[in-house]
Write a structure and sequence with these properties.
The protein folds into three domains: 4-26 and 150-235, Phosphohistidine domain (Glucose Oxidase, domain 1), CATH 3.50.30; 38-144, Orthogonal Bundle (Enzyme I, Chain A, domain 2); 268-573, Phosphoenolpyruvate-binding domains (TIM Barrel), CATH 3.20.20. Helices cover 46% and strands 14% of the residues. Helix 1 (38-66) runs antiparallel to helix 3 (74-82) and helix 5 runs antiparallel to helix 6 (123-144). It is of the alpha/beta class. Strand 10 (269-276), helix 11 and strand 11 (293-297) form a beta-alpha-beta unit. The chain contains 23 helices and 17 strands. It has helices spanning 38-66, 69-72, 74-82, 85-98, 102-118, 123-144, 166-170, 190-198, 209-212, 234-255, 282-287, 311-325, 360-366, 371-383, 399-418, 436-440, 442-445, 456-464, 482-497, 515-521, 533-541, 545-556, 561-570; strands at residues 4-7, 9-12, 15-23, 157-161, 177-182, 202-204, 218-222, 227-230, 262-263, 269-276, 293-297, 329-333, 388-393, 428-433, 451-454, 501-504, 525-528. It has an eight-stranded mixed β-sheet.
């Protein structure tokens, strides 16, 4: 058999070797005319929507149990679709107007709505099309009496599919499913995010995978390189089996580092922290040896609901995380929504360029009477009594924004004190550096904050003026571009001159290829997804801080990202995983 190598996008690292299991479901034959009658079809449709809602809630509970609350929040979007008046109303109208079957009406309306979302220019909004497909397929299965999910699998396989919905992904049997590849999707798709949480190797965006792969073909899937090898010869299989054994050995050895500090070969101490999206994610950070929480995304409290969370609800969530961390630092990012992250409860206007729009701190400062912001700050201040809280403001572009945010925080602290309500003290206050203007002005920001946290996901695309989700310009999303590295160095140096620390919570912080360079640039804290922590600790413990400083100095003098990569490749052992160096976004 001839070896074929297919290229996609690495979405979840790791190697899998197994037989192909194709998921190529044919679309059911759907009759247009309603034989029983309009009223019966309307009743069938209503019953199917109700049952689909029950199934989604069951999946939410399963996901929360297996992966944590943050991943379970994905299904809140599905519940919103099941309650969407545009979708449901349009289906009912078509049933009545054309005497159509519920299946026909649902298919036609779903096609129209998903097409409109797929035409949008932001990845976040395009994901809505996937949510709608998942939900409508579920309703369709209920209407037809079909069983949702894939057929039972009882041997080691690599799934090959056109796409995997969140419902499909969470129900994968880890005992047998060693990895998956899909023709659709990107690194921010729900299935990719869940694969990383489940630590399943995955490659997405592999065009024509179903056409190129036959059922039961022998496959090797490389989640780092984004490759799929079809029917490889015995020699290559043996080579990858050795890599797989070595990876398992490293994983076992790294587990022993969970209780160890993060110290370089020459004694330089670094803090490794975890990024979380809900209180349920803390356990994974602690299990993987996290020394703190470097980014607590608070948006889970606001997304997918019709009313804003109360101060008490927020207080309980923040308190839970602080208590679980038992005195270890917890950096909480104030709400970062707006623009591309819709909040139904605020009815924010649509924007042509949401990433440069009314979002994050801009929204917080301009919402009438800053109610949204003040409520969150009061909840945080109250929770601060229960642990080592640090508050971080996102999307800061000007000194005025930072000063206004700090002023409002001080006002709410004074109100609590006057009311006799305990508030945490002292609480460190920092800011994310994700806008080039803030990086350039870091020397002026540094005296007014306790710390910086660099958000590389946005900083890179803003610096290069390139949307990382736009395939036509994604080549410009360059973490190793000297312009980006110089901004990072500028921020770190500005913090150190003021005796402050600088961290990084963007995905670059968890990239094994980037860690040597970031160590050399002087980064004090690396915050990343929980599964990345032990590998990062293992890497840092094998590096000399002094040698990495020289590496970074040389990198800053170069003229292109390719030259920086070449430099790293020449440094023996420093560039592990460089071919997958483009950061993966959770």
């Amino acid at each position: 058999m001839t070896l074929r190598k297919l290229q996609g996008i690495g979405a979840s690292t790791g190697i899998a070797i197994a037989r192909a299991h194709r998921l190529a479901s044919a679309e059911p034959v759907i009759e247009k005319a309603s034989k029983p009658g309009t009223e019966e079809e309307l009743a069938r449709f209503a019953a199917a929507v109700h049952l689909a809602g029950i199934q989604v809630r069951e999946l939410m509970a399963l996901t929360a149990e297996k992966l944590g609350e943050a991943e379970a929040k994905i299904f809140e979007a599905h519940l919103l679709v099941l309650d969407d008046p545009e979708l449901l109303g349009s289906v009912r109208e078509l049933i009545v107007a054309q005497g159509a079957t519920a299946e026909y009406a649902l298919r036609e309306v779903a096609r129209e709505i998903t097409a409109s979302f797929e035409a949008l220019n932001t990845e976040y909004l395009r994901e809505r099309a996937g949510d709608i497909r998942d939900v409508t397929q579920r309703i369709m299965a209920v209407l037809s009496g079909a069983v949702t999910g894939s057929q039972p699998i009882e041997q080691a396989v690599i799934i090959v599919a056109h796409d995997l919905t969140p419902s499909d992904t969470v129900q994968l049997n880890r005992e047998y499913v060693k990895g998956f590849t899909t023709e659709m999707g990107g690194i921010t798709s729900h299935s990719a995010i869940m694969a990383r949480s489940m630590e399943i190797p995955a490659v997405v965006g592999m065009a024509d995978a179903l056409q190129e792969v036959r059922h039961n073909d022998l496959l090797i899937l490389d989640g780092e390189a984004g490759e799929l090898l079809v029917n490889p010869p015995a020699g290559i299989v043996a080579e990858y089996e050795a890599k797989l054994l070595e990876a398992e050995r490293r994983k076992e050895n790294r587990a022993l580092l969970a209780a160890q500090p993060t110290i370089s070969l020459d004694g330089h101490r670094i803090e490794l922290a975890g990024n979380i999206g809900s209180p349920g994610d803390v356990a994974a950070v602690l299990r993987h040896g996290g020394e703190g929480i470097g980014l607590f995304r608070t948006e889970f409290l606001y997304m997918g609901r019709e009313e804003l969370p109360s101060e008490e609800e927020q207080f309980m969530a923040y308190r839970s995380v602080l208590e679980q961390m038992e005195g270890k630092p917890v950096v909480v990012r104030t709400i970062d929504v707006g623009g591309d992250k819709e909040l139904p409860c605020l009815e924010l206007p649509k924007e042509d360029n949401p990433f440069l729009g009314f979002r994050a701190i801009r929204l917080c400062l301009e919402t009438p009477e800053q109610v949204l912001f003040r409520t969150q700050l009061r909840a945080l201040l109250r929770a601060g009594v229960y642990g080592n809280l640090k508050i971080m403001f996102p999307m800061i572009a000007t000194l005025e924004e930072l000063r206004r945010a700090k002023s409002i925080l001080a006002e709410e602290k004074l109100k609590l004190e006057q009311a006799g309500i305990p508030a945490g003290t002292p609480i460190s206050v920092g800011m994310m550096v994700e806008i080039p203007a803030a990086a350039v002005m870091a020397d002026l920001f540094a005296p007014e904050v306790d710390f910086f946290s660099i958000g590389t996901n946005d900083l890179i695309q803003y610096t290069m003026a390139a949307d990382r989700m736009n395939s036509r310009v994604s080549y410009l999303y360059q973490p190793y571009n000297p312009a980006v590295l110089r901004l990072i160095k500028q921020v770190i140096d500005a913090a150190h001159r003021q005796g402050k620390w600088a961290g990084m919570c963007g995905e670059m912080a968890g990239s094994l290829a980037a860690i040597p360079l970031l160590l050399g640039l002087g980064l004090d804290e690396f915050s990343m997804s929980a599964p990345s922590i032990l590998a990062a600790r293992d890497s840092i413990r094998q590096l000399s801080h002094k040698e990495m400083e020289e590496l970074a100095r040389r990198a800053l003098s170069l003229g292109s990202a390719e030259e920086v990569k070449a430099l790293l490749e020449q440094a023996d052992g420093w560039s592990a995983g460089l071919q997958a160096a483009a950061p993966q976004v959770p």
